[in-house]
Amino acid sequence: TGSQLREIFDKINNLLSGKSVQSGGRTVSVTQHPQGLDFVHYKLAEKFVNQGEEEVASHHEAAFPIAVVASGIWEIHPRVGDLILAHLHKKCPYSVPFYPAFKDGTSLEDYQRMLGYQVKDSKIEQQDNFLKRMSGMIRLYAAIIQLRWPYGNRQGTHPHGLNHGWRWLAQMLNMEPLADVTATLLFDFLEVCGNALMKQYQVQFWKMMLLMREEYFPRIEAITSSGQMGSLMRFKQFLEKCLQQKEIPLPKGSLQPSFWRS
């Protein structure tokens, strides 16, 4: 509920502001250790990204409550925002977006890790699990850039707003696509923040959607094998439906004003 989210936000904000907070049956404060605040900044940012990778990956609608708290904390404590991006870029290079190139002398395992795969005991995780985690993180990022904490003073601009989403989209379309990954993440991103981008960029946005369908989609199709068609077809249907209706629907689970009265 909205009231629970406020409690969580206030607790995190109080902790970062140097106040004493109850946690795990103890009273803790960042002032108890000279590096206390640095440690909390780092671990909190890591936790937000982990929630994208785990919670949002399994429940897409969880992106919005997590993102609105992350966005509000970022606004008041910019250091946390820098570290959210650092953790996100390390775990999901596609959020930069960046496709790491294979370099001579790099072991295959290390290269797979650079691409975001989990490698345990020389076993590389399954592709569907990998895509699910990457989707979760991209969806969280797409939610953060469009949401603001509704109880802030709202004096300045969003600390990492929709212009970053526009840039991400443009950079993705300037890169050679990767089979499976590109279609999946473009779909995830547009499903979450396409509506917000459409409202902000209007004609320019629809030009980009047309470019995706007419020029970029065939390039993804050209490198996609028959076993990887699922993500491609989902992306194609989404593009065609949006272009036909000249509308991108609000994402499922987006926080309506009534949510904050709950």
Brief write-up:
With 262 residues, the protein is mainly alpha-helical.
What is the count of helical runs? 9
Radius of gyration: 20 Å
Shape: globular
CATH topology: Serine Threonine Protein Phosphatase 5, Tetratricopeptide repeat
Measured distance between first and last alpha carbons: 5 Å
CATH architecture label name: Alpha Horseshoe
CATH superfamily: GLE1-like
N-to-C order of helices and strands: HEEHHHHEEHHHH
- Please state how the strands of the largest beta sheet are arranged side by side: 1-2
**SSE class:** mainly alpha
CATH class: Mainly Alpha
* Percent in helix: 55-70%
What does this structure look like?
With 262 residues, this protein is mostly helical. It has one domain: Serine Threonine Protein Phosphatase 5, Tetratricopeptide repeat (Alpha Horseshoe). The chain is 62% helix and 4% strand. A two-stranded antiparallel sheet has the order 1-2. It has a two-stranded antiparallel ribbon with strand order 3-4. Helix 2 packs across helix 4 and helix 3 packs across helix 4 (78-91). It is globular. 34% of the residues are buried. The model has no long low-confidence stretch (mean pLDDT 96). One of its GO terms (biological process) is protein transport. Its main location: cytoplasm. InterPro entries: GLE1, GLE1-like_sf. This is mRNA export factor GLE1.
